[in-house]
Structure formats: structure tokens, C-alpha cells
Write the C-alpha cells for this entry.
Amino acid sequence: MDVEKPSNPPLTSCIDRIVLPGDTVLDLSTMANQTIKLGEGLRQDCDTISVMKAGKLRLSKPNKYWVESSHKRYVPCAEDTILGIVVDSKPDNFLVDIKGPTLALLPVLAFEGGTRRNIPKFEVGTLLYVRVVKANNSMNPELSCTDATGKAAEFGPLKDGYMFETSTGLARMLLGSPTCPILEALGKKLSFEIAIGLNGRVWVNASSPATIIVVSNAIMNSEFLSGTQQRIMVEKLMQKLQ
Amino acid sequence: MEYVNPLTGFRLDGRRPNEMRQIRGEIGVVAKADGSALFEMGNTKVIAAVYGPREVRNKGQQINNQALVRCEYGMANFSTGDRRRKPKGDRRSTEISLVIRQTMEACILTHLMPHSQIDIFVQVLQADGGTRSACINAATLALADAGIPMRDIVTSCSAGYLCSTPLLDLNYVEDSAGGPDVTVGILAKMDKVTLLQMDAKLPMDIFENVMQLAIEGCKAVAHYIREVLLEHTKQLECHRGA
């Protein structure tokens, strides 16, 4: 039985190609003195850089490499804006589930004008729009309901509306700029409020439940459609609504 | 009984001694799981579902510097010829759960996710020999689907020795013949063995041949698994960023 050993292609041809766990994408011994920054999905094994997750290898000039992939679980990263659900409250922190490896901590004072006297009371199950302050794999991530300057900036509990879960890739696509086609097309015809978390949670609110349902279903179905297909889908949905 | 026909060299199911059964893999079969896969080797069908990394349920088992990997192997009641009364918890299932856990733990980069838990559930839907190998192959696909950082792809295959011939990928009839059954699990690109099990006895030189045959079988499975993963990841990337 003949099985060819797959050879490793040189680095430049791996960029923007799908790579799988175990693939070696870079041999440091052949490169001159350079600093390379490794993002998610890559690790250094002595003199080689190998892949940890299946996805597309990306390069941001001059020297940042990472593997772009879409999964259901979230890897906490500082300065990400996400949607969390309160699981428990302690004297100093709220314990928040963010779809990551561990629960995150939201200090009770991390709100605009937060003092010991006006600590918010969140019930178990409250949906919060928060910002990740610190994310380190050896500790629980820390969250905050203020932006870097201390202002509230739309962070905090989200009332009413409907929350659904998607993959991290779809969340990134929805948050991309310029505005992704599905949100643009929906926004032209319907009026709704939306909060997208990089951890794959999306919250939609509108004046009528019918609008909320249409928007949520449209977003959930748009994951694998191209821009044009998304616009066509929204057109058809609008026709049905009328 | 004639497991290998002396005249034609064919086995009972018409294969040659160094031929594997037909393999098929599918990713994303369990919607609720973070990663899932279905793997078939001939008539053996196995489903693997992976949950994690997530918060540890039992704080007593938490490990401070790495993720806790748990694995449960179960056989459906209808998977074998006679209806099984105890799908889990019997000796064989406990042993195979342990084997699969150790094999997958060797390839998961657990130190990246301390204080968390990764659950691998494997369920045999149809058992026709080689369930252990099919489970490991399915678990690899499911872990890649879940985006859990791995060193490399683990694949597994079994081989035996009947009628003085090394045979690759035994089915149930050949397995029950009472001859030796060698199961090998390797890290495909790194060419390292993570699982090696044998029951019954074999002289050393013949064992080397049988193990080598099983390793070649593993490499063929790895080739196929890479293709399945590539196809699946390409599909996810297909229209994003258009």
C-alpha cells in the first residue's frame, strides 16, 4: 500500500490557504533574524512553527501570522466586546458565562459612577453587554461595563429582545467594516436594535416580535451565503412580510 | 476456519490482507455539541461529540495548570448482534474510555486551557470490529471541529495475524478468531506512536511486521481525515469575506 508522505510547502504558499493541526508552516532555521508575531492557532515547537487549529492562515504585514477559524466556543481576548450571562453573584464580583473555558468575573464596581452604595443587582440569567479587560489563560477573565475611559458607552444589561447563539466566525462577519450586506439590507427596510458579541452571541430587539423573528432568522441563515445571496434572501423575506 | 484463502489470498469479506475497509467521515453531525463527527470503518459506525473547553463541573477534579480531559465510551443497545443490556459501565467500556482519553490527551495542548474541562463522548452505533480505532478517528475529527488546540491529528488502525498472514483492519469475525489484535494510534505528521495495544501473543519479529502494517493503515486514515477536514474548513470559509 503506497501512501505518499505529504511534504510541507514553503511558507509563502501557505498564506490564505487552509491549514490543519500538525502542519508545519514555517521553519525558523531558514529565516534570517526577524521578529515574528504569532496569533491564535499557531505555536512554536523548537525551530518550527506548527498549526494547532484547522483554519485559514493569514498574514498581516509585516510580521503577524494567525489562523482564522470559526467555532462555537470563544477564546477570551482583551478589548473584545461580548455578551455574557450572569451565573452567580459574589460580594466582589459577578460570575458571568461567556462561552469560554472558564467563567469570567465582573467586578461590582466596574460601572460608570459605581460605588459601594449603588451596586447593581443582577439576577441569575441577566444578559450583559461587556468588555473584556484582562484575558489570560491561567486566570478567570475580567470584564467591565465601562469603556477604557470609564464611561458607560452602551455597556450593561440588555432588556427585552431575543438572544441567540452563533459561531464566532459569523459574529466577526457581522461586526466587520464596511457593514456586512445582511445588516445593511435588513436595516434599510426594518428598524431594530442589535448587539453582537465576539463570543458568538447576538441580541436583537425591535418594536414587534415579528420583526425580531425575521431579523434573527435572516442572520442565522446568512452564515454561508455570499453578499449577493444575502441581499436576495432579505428581498424575498421583505416581500413575504408585505 | 479459513480466514485467508490459500489459493486466492482473499479474506472472508473479499479483501486482500493489506486492504482496509471503506472509511467515511462526516463533521458536524450533533448540532448542540461544540464539535462532533461521525466515522465509519466498514460496518463499524461511531459518533463522537466534544464539549469544551468549559468550566469544570466537579471542582475537586480541577487541575491547576492544564485542562481536564474526560472521555466516555458507550455502545448503543442495538450496536451488536444480540441486544446489549449494559451500554456503559462494564469493564470493556471503562477500559476503552481510559484508552481513548489517554490517546487524545497526548495530542491536546492541555496547558493552554488550565482550570477547564473537555468532554469527549463516543457512542458506537454499529460494532463490527475495530471500534476502538473508529472512536479515536471520530474523536480527532470532533476535536478539530470544536477548535481545541491539538499538536497533530491522531489516527488509529488495527491489524492482526491469522493463517500466518498479517491482516489489516480486522472485522468482528476475524477479531473473534482468537488471534492477536494489535491496535496502533499515531500522530500523523510527527510520526509518533501514542497508542499501542495487543491482546494474545505474537513472536517479536512477526509483531514488528504487524505493527508496521497497522502504522501504514493509520497513515492512510490520516490522509483521508485531512481531506475531510480540509473540505469542511473550506466550506466554512467559502463565502465569508466576499
Chain B has one domain: 23-241.
